[in-house]
């Protein structure tokens, strides 16, 4: 069977094109398993946690007894009662033991749990742990316990009791045999479980899981790792792609988020050639990658994005922070102790970059912008003007960005000219994005360049039918600052190998001259608009 890119469930190298995990597995073994660590792998949705656990189980089995469990195998009702949970856990663990491949003395090893399940009465979790200790003592090798989807248990006190007992046995394992190593995997960090159970501040982070070693290995893919995966694909399919260039392009959009990398590759491999809309675009090119990103962002239901919307609805402070970063260019100092930052990092929406909070990747940024702007568009005059004007900006299939700026200057003065400086400084850039959205909608994309985004300056990169436009949005701070902005924009135009750039300044000087002018600087042209 021909290998393919997988976005549904566990990836397996025999049937899927995937980033090789060998080095990562070696590090997990040497840094955690061999040291007997108990730890948590918590990452955002579809971040490759289950794939990593499955691969790790196979990697460890020659030397360890690996018991792989999934808390989704235990029903919701079974988490609400200690005795019922204990029986259910015992049953799932016994099944995992029988699947682990170590068959010698299997029945004798499992006998403590077999008898436990046969006993009548209201059995306690402590009794179950006594039997688990006997199993670890009798087993022919050290046992590694892996539990996936621990979020399934996160709303139940019985799971916290389970963690407390596991902690107790861990601390006394010289006297009471217990699992050699334990790995819990899910989105929520274990320290946040009491935050979900008990919202009052005194219990926020009082988790019994303070024995856990810090898991700090990256699970995102580097451009080099993506390149290695694409090289395998290229050897099989001979597309003629520039492997390194496409790998770096994909990384630029995804920052190595595993699901997003696979989704782009899957679209290029399977869907692009079969869809007549893309017959003039070569799949494994920068233009093809841009089309794949556009397609992913336009899908009606993507579980990863659905989960993002759900979390933003639930955590309003996190949503407000994201809006400030995107719309106002606000630079927020990174502190994992701050609740919203902590939650954003845990869900995979945020990352630390040069000591500041940043959106985790460009696709998330584009999705969030689309989401926020779609919600704003219902009541936005700027969006309505853009919707009304949109047909006049496309000439022979090309976007006339100069005309976009000219029209925006007129509309902005009419709609927002009488607002005060504080209002425009906070929302001016949002109004331009709202105006631009209906003009490129369905054909082009835009995103904010993270390296230039701050309270004074933001660069918007617009992709329209394979053509890129760089628009610098900035707050006016005098001629000297404006000249520096021109020089910075020239550097950016050189980087992208583009001859014309655009600058939109929000000027609060009462003697300002609004309008659009053209400035020639060497072999480049900068179209400057002032509102």
Oligomer: single chain
What overall form do the CA principal axes indicate? elongated
What is the helix fraction of residues, given as a range? 40-55%
Largest sheet: 6 strands, mixed
Architecture of the largest domain in CATH? Answer: 3-Layer(aba) Sandwich
Main sheet: strand order: 9-10-11-12-14-13
| CATH superfamily membership of the largest domain | P-loop containing nucleotide triphosphate hydrolases
Secondary structure tally, helices = 19
What is the rounded Rg?
Answer: 28 Å
CATH topology of the largest domain: Rossmann fold
Uncertain segments? 199-204
Task: Look at the helices and sheets and give the structural class.
Answer: alpha/beta
Residues in β-strands, percent: 5-15%
Instruction: Report the end-to-end length measured between terminal Cα atoms.
Output: 60 Å
Top-tier CATH class of the largest domain = Alpha Beta
The tally of strands reads 14
Can you give the mean pLDDT?
Answer: 87
Give the domain tally.
3
